[in-house]
Design brief:
mainly alpha, about 140 residues, single chain
C-alpha cells in the first residue's frame, strides 16, 4: 500500500456521501392497458384475474400481520424518550423558550428574513443531550 492509497482510504472514510447507492425500485402496479384495446377486452381480462387475486389475499394478509408483529417487537430507543422528557423539563426551559420565540419570529416574518434558528436549536439539543446522558447510562448499565 502506497502513500496515496492511504490518503485515498482516509478521504473515502471521511466522506461517506461520495459513495452513491441506489435504493431498490418500488413495486409498481401492473401497467395500464394500451389505449388501442377496447374497454370490453379490458373488462374480460379483469374478470378473469379476480379469482386469482382472491387466492392471493390470504397470503398478503399473512405477510402484513408478520410485518406488524415485527414492528411491535422493535425496541424503542430510550435515548429519544429521555431527550424528549428533558426538552420539556424545567432544566431546558430557557433554551426551549428561546427556540420557540425564534421559530415564531421566523415563521411570522415569512421569506423576508434571513434569520434562521440553527443556533437556538443546537442549544436546545445540547441541553437535552446533557440532561439525558446520565439517565441513559443508568439504563444501559
Amino acid at each position: 500500500m502506497g502513500f496515496w492509497d492511504a490518503v485515498t482510504d482516509l478521504i473515502d472514510a471521511a466522506t461517506p456521501w461520495a459513495t452513491v447507492e441506489a435504493e431498490a425500485p418500488a413495486d409498481t402496479p401492473a401497467e395500464a392497458a394500451p389505449a388501442s384495446e377496447s374497454t370490453e377486452e379490458t373488462t374480460k381480462e379483469t374478470e378473469a384475474e379476480e379469482p386469482a387475486a382472491a387466492a392471493d389475499e390470504p397470503e398478503e394478509e399473512a405477510e402484513e400481520e408478520e410485518e406488524e408483529e415485527e414492528d411491535e417487537d422493535e425496541i424503542k430507543d430510550p435515548k429519544e424518550t429521555f431527550e424528549e422528557e428533558c426538552r420539556n423539563s424545567k432544566e431546558c426551559a430557557p433554551a426551549k423558550h428561546h427556540y420557540d420565540e425564534c421559530a415564531a419570529r421566523v415563521t411570522g416574518a415569512g421569506a423576508d428574513t434571513k434569520e434562521d434558528c440553527v443556533e437556538e436549536f443546537f442549544h436546545l439539543v445540547h441541553c437535552a443531550t446533557q440532561c439525558a446522558a446520565p439517565k441513559l447510562w443508568n439504563v444501559l448499565k
